[in-house]
Amino acid sequence: MYAVIKTGGKQYRVSEGDVLRVEKLDAEAGATVEFDQVLMVGGGDDVKVGSPLVEGGRVSAEVVAQGRDRKIEVVKFKRRKDYQRKHGHRQHYTEVKITGIQAG
Q1: pLDDT exceeds 90 at position 40
Q2: pTM of this structure
């Protein structure tokens, strides 16, 4: 069984046992979180598509870790104008393990 969930402005196709990185959630490692914005639930020939959400659809997950991604370096440069800017960014993320999917 799989589901398509929406969190942090992105959509993810998940199934039970998957480990994925999502935008930072306000939860400690070891805590349980629930994603209630379920767009689609499927398993075999039985597929439920929400409009926009599946009624009663719920995906539960366990927070594995909180962390920061690798550094992205942004460079601005204009030739012959003595203009250079260098800026770095590290995005926060939450690593979660999917523990259950309910179709509703």
Answers
A1: yes
A2: 0.84
